Amino acid sequence: MRITVLIIACILLRISLQAQQEAHFTQFMFNKLSFNPAYAGSSEYASISALHRSQWVGLEGAPTSQVVNFQTPMKNKRVGLGMTVMHDQIGPSTSWSYQLKYSYGFPIANGRLAIGLQGSLRNYRVKWDKTKAIQQGDAVLSSDPTNRMLPNFGMGIYFQNRKFFVGASLPNILKGDLSFYEGEEYNTDFSQEKQHFYFMGGLILPIGNATMFKPAFLVKYTENAPASVDLNASLIFVEKFWVGATYRMGGDQFTKLGESLDAIVQYQLSQNIRAGVAYDFTLSKMRAYNSGTFEVVLDYYFMKQNQILTNPRFF
Question: How far apart are CA 226 and CA 263, in angstroms?
Fold first, then answer.
């Protein structure tokens, strides 16, 4: 396929030679529902969150991602329900994912151990008129946009108490064909939706009357790709102001520095609202072609002013 932009897309992100397809999120500790259905119902009250990520700012056709999560515990506190809508765009390709989530929890070790299931539907769309062919009249290119709908399901497990959390998930169990082409002359193995495994954890350590230390990690693994590891360390002041840093291992095969070094700041604006921003400093050779990556996130909890959280929203 002789088109510059798709070659770049394959090297850089979702449909990649290293098979890492799902978007990275620097503030992963506040976006757990999007990749682990067992997190649904882990909060005392219903909540909704919105996140925007612009990756590799300044690079033409660079990825952008938006996520909206909603989750709520049911009255018996055992069952949790959730919903995620996710949008990704890179160059001429766009992906919309719609996910419904269910979790069932058991009280254990002063916390909640939950098992979660999700069903999802993902729509991939490529606008071929946005591509630039090296060879004019390439028969491989379509003149019209193409779409592909991929149903899937996933599962996860998640434990949380006042001191720590840990979880593992496989959001998409089925593999899907993303080639958009039929026939023996095309290699449909090149573009496939791969399984992604996630494992994460974190804990809270008081280090003073008004300060807490919160380390956290996220491990992502995909077949035929090196594991991606995010290591985060945050300080929380007076249960309102967060400041932290994340080191993302990975990057390209030509550097040992890793993928990025990230800064995170969050603030509890009110009892109901929390806002956060993050900035990624690229460490790989991609740093020569972009101005970094930024994220913004906003959380809202549906609770009345006279209600009090017995479990602080650190997780």
Answer: 24
Q: In this predicted structure, what is the pLDDT of residue 141?
A: 58
Burial class (CB in 10 A: 0-12, 13-18, 19+), 143: exposed
Q: What six digits make up the tokens of 35?
A: 């990749």
Length of the chain: 315
Q: Are 246 and 264 in contact (CB under 8 A)?
A: yes
Find the angle CA(297)-CA(299)-CA(303) to the nearest 5 degrees: 175
How many CA within 13 A on the CB side of residue 52? 4
Domain-wise residue ranges, the chain = 4-301
The pair phi, psi for residue 54, each rounded to 5°, is -115, 110
pLDDT mean values, one per 10 residues, the chain (315 residues): 40 39 85 95 92 90 93 91 95 91 94 96 81 60 72 96 95 78 53 84 92 95 83 94 92 70 94 94 85 93 71 63
Residue 142 is predicted with a pLDDT of 59
User: Which one is the CATH code of 4-301: 1.10.10.60, 3.30.870.10, 2.40.160.40, 2.60.40.2250?
Assistant: 2.40.160.40
The label of the residue with tokens 């932290």 reads 244
d(CA 242, CA 240): 7
